[in-house]
Amino acid sequence: QVQLVESGGGLVQPGGSLRLSCVASGRIRSIYRMGWYRQAPGKQRELVASITSLFNTNYADSVKGRFTISRDDAKNTVYLQMNSLKPEDTAVYYCNGDGNYWGQGTQVTVSS
Questions:
Q1: What is the DSSP letter of 14?
Q2: Which of 20, 49, 81, 86 could form a disulfide with 69, with the two C-beta atoms 3.0–4.6 Å apart?
Q3: Whole-angstrom Cα distance, residue 71 to residue 22?
Q4: Vertex 66, ends 16 and 27: CA angle to 5°?
Q5: Is 39 helix (H, G, I), strand (E, B) or coil?
Q6: Which helix or strand (DSSP H or E) is residue 112 part of?
């Protein structure tokens, strides 16, 4: 069983940056694909970015060029660096492992 805990959310002004972290209680080496999802009020949860154990990455079109996903297997941690944040990035961000494991979520609010 793998447990995921997110951190790093908060309130930031438009154009600002945040870095989210997701720490796994188990070894994430056994997880092929780690992903970050987000869910805004009244909207469906959507994939933001994912990274495989081979470090292949995938991004939603809406965040390409602004967000970067990375993983550090030695620290059992996946990161999401978010730059040039926009109000439409406001959502609860969730960490996911292989579609099976979910964190509790961390709130990101982009507002002036």
A1: T
A2: 49
A3: 9
A4: 100
A5: strand
A6: none
Q: What is the pLDDT of residues 73-84, one digit of tens each?
A: 889 899 999 999
Cα–Cα distance list, 14 to 40, 49, 88, 109 (Å): 17, 20, 10, 9
The pLDDT tens digits of the residues spanning 48-94 come to 999 999 999 999 999 999 999 999 988 989 999 999 999 999 999 99
Q: Which two tokens stand for residue 85?
A: 């944040």
CB 50 within 8 A of CB 35: yes
Contact 6, 25 (CB under 8 A): no
- Which pLDDT does position 28 carry in this prediction? 67
Half-sphere exposure of 74 (CA within 13 A, CB side): 0
